[in-house]
Amino acid sequence: MRCHTFSETASCATCSDASRDARLLCVVETPADQAALERTASYRGLYFVLMGRISPLDGIGTREIGAERLLERAGDGTVEEVILALNFTAEGEATAHVLAEALRARGVRVTRLARGVPAGSELEYVDLSTIAHALVDRR
Questions:
Q1: Which end of the chain is more exposed for a tag (fewer CB within 10 A), N or C?
Q2: CB 99 within 8 A of CB 28
Q3: What are the tens digits of pLDDT across the range 60-72?
Q4: How far apart are the first and last CA of the chain?
Q5: Helix count (H) and strand count (E) of the chain?
Q6: Count of Cβ atoms closer than 10 Å to residue 105 Cβ
């Protein structure tokens, strides 16, 4: 298996770990994001690190972030779910939208990290956008 984290031909320790669930592919923007998810010890699947995000104003599109390689990897017959763990910035949201549309068009199940009011916070101090998203995404 090729590792898409750091090089095209070498496998990283995560990708080489046979105990990881190859049916799950978590897409992150940077190795630092991958490391943050790993520190939670809550995810045991594999990763695809984009090494960036779509930013039309900076001339960064799907080609520059490796979207084609992601679509190949997600459509390899092993991956059952792609988890988009991209930052909740304007660029991260745009990237998540574009990738989700492309993946769904190929029949891949796509999910996104949940967002909402942080545990232990008081509503009067939470920004309005976070409250609005929590209401829309409630379950």
A1: C
A2: no
A3: 999 999 999 999 9
A4: 37
A5: 5, 4
A6: 9
